[in-house]
Amino acid sequence: xxxRPLPPELSPPLDxxxxxxxxxxxxxxxxxxxxxxxxRLPYTGLSSLWGLHPTLQRLLADPTQLRWLDLSFNCLTAIxxxxxxxxxxxxxxxxxxxxxxxxEVDKLGALRQLHRLTLCGNPLEKERGYRRYxxxxxxxxxxxxxxxxxxxxxxxxxxxxxxxxxxRAQRASE
Length: 174
Description:
Blueprint: E1 14-15, E2 38-40, H1 52-59, E3 68-70, E4 91-93, E5 116-118, H2 130-137, E6 143-144, E7 147-148, H3 151-165, H4 168-173
Helix pairs in contact: 2-3
Protein backbone atom coordinates (compact mmCIF):
# COMPACT_ATOMS: atom_id res chain seq x y z
CA UNK A 1 0.00 0.00 0.00
CA UNK A 2 1.55 3.35 -1.00
CA UNK A 3 2.23 5.79 1.80
CA ARG A 4 0.20 8.96 1.90
CA PRO A 5 1.93 12.30 2.14
CA LEU A 6 1.77 14.01 5.51
CA PRO A 7 -0.70 16.86 5.88
CA PRO A 8 1.08 20.24 5.72
CA GLU A 9 0.72 20.90 9.46
CA LEU A 10 2.66 17.68 10.19
CA SER A 11 5.35 18.17 7.56
CA PRO A 12 8.76 19.06 9.00
CA PRO A 13 10.05 22.58 8.33
CA LEU A 14 12.27 23.25 5.37
CA ASP A 15 15.57 23.87 7.11
CA UNK A 16 18.36 25.86 5.47
CA UNK A 17 20.10 26.75 8.75
CA UNK A 18 23.82 27.54 8.55
CA UNK A 19 23.90 27.55 4.74
CA UNK A 20 25.85 30.61 3.61
CA UNK A 21 23.60 32.51 1.22
CA UNK A 22 24.36 35.54 -0.90
CA UNK A 23 20.64 35.91 -1.56
CA UNK A 24 17.39 34.00 -1.28
CA UNK A 25 17.68 33.18 -4.97
CA UNK A 26 20.45 30.73 -4.02
CA UNK A 27 17.85 28.42 -2.47
CA UNK A 28 16.31 25.60 -4.45
CA UNK A 29 13.99 22.80 -3.38
CA UNK A 30 15.18 19.24 -3.17
CA UNK A 31 12.63 17.04 -4.88
CA UNK A 32 10.07 19.73 -5.65
CA UNK A 33 8.02 22.14 -3.57
CA UNK A 34 7.37 21.10 0.02
CA UNK A 35 3.92 20.97 1.64
CA UNK A 36 5.42 22.37 4.87
CA UNK A 37 4.09 25.44 6.68
CA UNK A 38 7.49 26.33 8.19
CA UNK A 39 10.77 27.69 6.82
CA ARG A 40 14.04 27.96 8.76
CA LEU A 41 16.73 30.36 7.50
CA PRO A 42 18.83 31.17 10.60
CA TYR A 43 22.58 31.74 10.45
CA THR A 44 22.61 32.12 6.67
CA GLY A 45 24.14 35.59 6.52
CA LEU A 46 21.12 37.13 4.79
CA SER A 47 21.16 40.93 4.73
CA SER A 48 18.12 41.31 2.48
CA LEU A 49 14.83 39.55 1.78
CA TRP A 50 14.90 40.56 -1.87
CA GLY A 51 13.33 37.78 -3.91
CA LEU A 52 11.36 36.26 -1.02
CA HIS A 53 8.13 35.73 -2.97
CA PRO A 54 9.69 33.93 -5.97
CA THR A 55 11.75 31.84 -3.55
CA LEU A 56 8.65 30.83 -1.59
CA GLN A 57 6.96 29.92 -4.88
CA ARG A 58 9.83 27.55 -5.68
CA LEU A 59 10.17 26.05 -2.18
CA LEU A 60 6.60 25.68 -0.95
CA ALA A 61 3.60 23.90 -2.42
CA ASP A 62 1.37 26.71 -1.10
CA PRO A 63 3.31 29.83 -0.05
CA THR A 64 0.13 31.50 1.19
CA GLN A 65 0.01 28.89 3.94
CA LEU A 66 3.39 29.78 5.47
CA ARG A 67 2.85 29.92 9.24
CA TRP A 68 6.36 29.88 10.74
CA LEU A 69 9.42 31.76 9.50
CA ASP A 70 12.81 31.80 11.21
CA LEU A 71 15.18 34.54 10.03
CA SER A 72 17.19 34.69 13.25
CA PHE A 73 20.92 35.37 13.53
CA ASN A 74 21.35 37.00 10.14
CA CYS A 75 22.41 40.50 9.06
CA LEU A 76 19.01 42.14 8.60
CA THR A 77 19.05 45.85 9.50
CA ALA A 78 15.36 46.52 8.84
CA ILE A 79 12.06 44.68 8.76
CA UNK A 80 11.39 44.23 5.07
CA UNK A 81 7.83 45.19 4.04
CA UNK A 82 7.64 41.92 2.10
CA UNK A 83 7.00 40.21 5.45
CA UNK A 84 3.68 42.07 5.74
CA UNK A 85 2.42 40.19 2.68
CA UNK A 86 2.63 36.88 4.57
CA UNK A 87 -0.83 37.27 6.09
CA UNK A 88 -1.02 33.76 7.54
CA UNK A 89 2.25 34.06 9.45
CA UNK A 90 1.79 33.04 13.09
CA UNK A 91 5.40 32.81 14.26
CA UNK A 92 8.26 35.08 13.18
CA UNK A 93 11.81 34.82 14.51
CA UNK A 94 13.95 37.88 13.88
CA UNK A 95 16.19 37.70 16.96
CA UNK A 96 19.93 38.17 16.66
CA UNK A 97 19.88 40.52 13.68
CA UNK A 98 20.89 44.20 13.45
CA UNK A 99 17.46 45.89 13.39
CA UNK A 100 18.11 49.22 15.05
CA UNK A 101 14.97 51.33 14.96
CA UNK A 102 11.90 50.52 17.04
CA UNK A 103 9.62 52.07 14.42
CA GLU A 104 10.59 49.17 12.10
CA VAL A 105 8.18 47.05 14.15
CA ASP A 106 5.30 49.20 12.84
CA LYS A 107 5.50 47.25 9.60
CA LEU A 108 4.41 44.09 11.40
CA GLY A 109 1.09 45.65 12.42
CA ALA A 110 -0.45 44.19 9.25
CA LEU A 111 0.22 40.62 10.47
CA ARG A 112 -3.02 40.01 12.41
CA GLN A 113 -2.39 36.24 12.72
CA LEU A 114 1.04 36.73 14.31
CA HIS A 115 1.12 35.20 17.82
CA ARG A 116 4.83 34.59 18.42
CA LEU A 117 7.55 37.14 17.68
CA THR A 118 11.21 37.33 18.62
CA LEU A 119 13.24 40.51 18.28
CA CYS A 120 15.68 40.13 21.18
CA GLY A 121 19.33 40.56 20.34
CA ASN A 122 18.62 43.46 17.98
CA PRO A 123 19.71 47.01 18.86
CA LEU A 124 16.03 48.12 18.94
CA GLU A 125 15.57 46.01 22.07
CA LYS A 126 17.54 48.63 24.03
CA GLU A 127 15.10 51.44 23.21
CA ARG A 128 13.04 52.70 26.14
CA GLY A 129 9.58 51.13 26.28
CA TYR A 130 10.52 48.45 23.72
CA ARG A 131 8.34 45.63 25.04
CA ARG A 132 5.33 47.87 25.75
CA TYR A 133 5.60 49.41 22.29
CA UNK A 134 5.63 46.03 20.55
CA UNK A 135 2.74 44.68 22.64
CA UNK A 136 0.67 47.82 22.04
CA UNK A 137 1.23 47.48 18.31
CA UNK A 138 0.61 43.70 18.24
CA UNK A 139 -1.93 42.99 21.01
CA UNK A 140 -2.62 39.50 19.65
CA UNK A 141 0.89 38.27 20.57
CA UNK A 142 0.94 35.43 23.08
CA UNK A 143 4.75 35.37 23.30
CA UNK A 144 7.38 38.02 22.70
CA UNK A 145 11.07 37.16 22.82
CA UNK A 146 10.34 33.64 24.08
CA UNK A 147 8.38 34.99 27.09
CA UNK A 148 4.64 34.62 27.55
CA UNK A 149 2.64 37.82 27.56
CA UNK A 150 0.86 38.01 30.93
CA UNK A 151 -2.49 39.59 31.79
CA UNK A 152 -0.66 42.00 34.11
CA UNK A 153 1.55 43.04 31.22
CA UNK A 154 -1.49 43.60 29.02
CA UNK A 155 -3.00 45.88 31.71
CA UNK A 156 0.27 47.84 31.97
CA UNK A 157 0.39 48.22 28.18
CA UNK A 158 -3.19 49.53 28.17
CA UNK A 159 -2.25 52.20 30.75
CA UNK A 160 0.94 53.04 28.88
CA UNK A 161 -0.97 53.30 25.60
CA UNK A 162 -3.58 55.58 27.18
CA UNK A 163 -0.82 57.86 28.50
CA UNK A 164 0.90 57.90 25.10
CA UNK A 165 -2.29 58.87 23.28
CA UNK A 166 -2.97 62.01 25.37
CA UNK A 167 -1.43 65.23 24.10
CA ARG A 168 1.93 66.01 25.72
CA ALA A 169 0.68 69.33 27.14
CA GLN A 170 -2.18 67.56 28.91
CA ARG A 171 0.24 65.00 30.46
CA ALA A 172 2.59 67.78 31.58
CA SER A 173 -0.19 69.68 33.36
CA GLU A 174 -1.16 66.66 35.48
